[in-house]
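Human: You know discrete backbone vocabularies at least as well as I do. Show me how you would write down a chain together with its backbone fold. No explanation is needed for now; the record alone will do.

Assistant:
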Amino acid sequence: QAQLVESGGGLVQPGGSMTLSCAAPGFASGYIMDYYAIGWFRQAPGKEREGVSCIANDEDLIWYSDSAEGRFTISRDNANSLVYLQMNSLKTEDAAVYYCAADLYFSMPRCNSPGQSMESWGHGTLVTVSS
């Protein structure tokens, strides 16, 4: 399993923007990461983990949850083993611990789930949306 590391979380006001990053230091020079689909999931206190967005290894498939559609943008930089989640127009209900996860196979049903079957996970980064 590859190690994933999330960063970029913190405190943001409602309506603000934030970009999360997912690094994959376990992937050598992006070569292996090229084969992996990456997903962003989140878990708010007292709630089940949910999928936010997923991107296929070659970016030809992208999925967004209904809550993320139109506000969030997922992208990847395979050369540097990085995946980003740009979040705009943040709402208080977006507050959660955000996790990135990797798997060899892109699956919309798995993205639209708690994602337990994803192969590798990061430890999460906390996003707080508050005034």
